[in-house]
Amino acid sequence: MGKNSYSGHLVILKTDRNVVDAPQALFVETKFLNDIATELRNYAAGVGYNVNTLGNQFFKDMAWGGLDETDVFEALPLSERNRIKNRIGAELYNKNYYGTLPRGIKACE
After folding, report:
1. pLDDT of residue 7
2. Is residue 69 part of a domain?
3. Which superkingdom (predicted)?
4. Which residues touch 2 (CB under 8 Å, ≥6 apart)?
């Protein structure tokens, strides 16, 4: 599969030469991320976190965990990428991570 730029969008050319446009891939990945964020919120509520205090952005940022090298992540504005990376780093290391403090409770050592 080759990747080419076409009219400002990432286009993936399949071997049969059908074109898959980036907005469709972005929709699928964004939907997937929203589902992950919702389930993280549901889990947190189930184990006693005050999810209203954490807020929806916390769960949306955490949903990006492990996806920071994807094309969709790289297409986000730098400020959003930094916020997401800093949130995940703060929670992962349970300490101030580039000015972002952890909001959860460290589950294990």
Report:
1. 38
2. yes
3. Bacteria
4. 12, 13
